[in-house]
TrEMBL record:
Keywords: Hydrolase. It comes from Flavobacterium hydrophilum. GO terms for cellular component: membrane. Residues 67-316 form the AB hydrolase-1 domain. PANTHER family: HYDROLASE, PUTATIVE (AFU_ORTHOLOGUE AFUA_2G14860)-RELATED (PTHR43798:SF33), MONOACYLGLYCEROL LIPASE (PTHR43798). This is Alpha/beta hydrolase. Pfam families: Abhydrolase_1. One of its GO terms (molecular function) is monoacylglycerol lipase activity. One of its GO terms (biological process) is acylglycerol catabolic process.
Length: 330
């Protein structure tokens, strides 16, 4: 009994010590190195001028095919490293933007986030790079953006790939609406332990390894910045965007050939902690959501990856990259 009490007393110290080991990162990640050179593109949004960071990798064996990789809400372009390396090996030009509010891109003090704005910024970047046709791959929140981009610019999006996209169900039908201020207060409490706990529960089903920790530490590095409140506020605004701007009702309008890559163990659902247990059990069931979505999107194919959660390109890379390359080469 004494040993148990001692452990409980020391637990907060251990958590604090782990957080203390996290490398502190500024809000534009100027002290964090991406896997490939980063450039910046200026965009005018809502009477403000922002810098949009991006990687553009053109391989020596360029096959005249392009692909844009769109990151999720809790990530940035850096986590596509292994995907980029495999794609350029096959000859694809790979464009990886950090959307405004993410990664190395500008963090607004005042901004109305919409998927349409993100899509328009991405199209402006592609126009700047002289790219008229490309495949679009979106993971998590990036899947919602990839869908919006494809609907807005069908002449540009040759193919669409959705990797465990969120928004395959309309949470606002069952989850109580949370004001932006509520999301903000939650984000202010983020640290390494909170991020790890969330990801273990929703992404990795209790598993943890060095790859998972790498990306959790990147997110936690922001929480130590003196002006982390700016990041937290932007994050809160994005939660509101995701919650109030569903795209699933328009899946039927997608014209581009589409590949769904779904880790079937995924349980991610926005606001799941706000509903009773009986409702919570029905949310984020990707094993069923993937099948349902595939039936909704015309000319689509579903690849299921069993025993895999929210990040197939991190957790089960070989099972993710092989069908992706086959689809892109068709």
């Amino acid at each position: 009994m004494k040993k148990i009490k001692l452990i409980l007393l020391l637990l907060p110290f251990f958590c604090f010590s782990q957080q203390e080991k996290i490398k502190s990162l500024d809000i534009n990640l100027t002290n964090y190195e991406y896997p490939f050179p980063v450039k910046f593109f200026e965009v005018n949004n809502q009477r403000q001028l922002f810098k949009m960071a991006y990687m553009d990798i053109i391989p020596a064996n360029y096959n005249n095919r392009n692909i844009v990789l769109l990151h999720g809400k809790n990530f940035n372009g850096a986590y596509w490293e292994t995907t980029i390396k495999s794609l350029i090996k096959e000859g694809f030009r790979v464009i990886v933007p950090d959307q405004i509010g993410f990664g190395k891109s500008s963090k607004p003090d005042n901004f109305q986030y919409t998927f349409q704005q993100f899509a328009e910024n991405t199209k402006k970047l592609l126009d700047h790079l002289g790219i008229q046709k490309t495949a679009i791959l979106g993971h998590s929140m990036g899947g919602m953006l990839a869908t919006r981009f494809t609907l807005m610019y069908p002449e540009t999006a040759e193919k669409l790939v959705l990797e465990n996209p969120i928004g395959l169900e309309d949470w606002k039908l069952v989850v109580p609406y949370q004001p932006v201020d509520s999301w903000y207060e939650s984000e202010l409490k983020q640290n390494y332990e909170a991020i790890k706990k969330y990801q273990m529960a929703n992404y990795y089903d209790g598993k943890w390894n060095a790859d998972f920790q790498k990306w959790a530490e990147l997110g936690a590095g922001w929480t130590t910045a003196p002006n982390y409140n700016i990041v937290a506020w932007n994050s809160a605004l994005m939660y509101d965007m995701i919650f109030t701007q569903p795209v699933l009702y328009e899946f039927k309008n997608i014209k581009s050939p589409t590949l769904l890559i779904i880790g079937t163990r995924d349980k991610t659902a926005l606001g799941k902690q706000l509903v009773p247990e009986e409702i919570k059990k029905t949310l984020g069931n990707y094993a069923e959501l993937g099948k349902k979505t595939q039936k909704t999107i015309p000319n689509s194919k579903l690849v299921e990856i069993p025993n895999t959660g929210h990040l197939p390109h991190i957790e089960s890379f070989d099972q993710f990259i092989k069908p992706l390359i086959v689809f892109l080469k068709q």
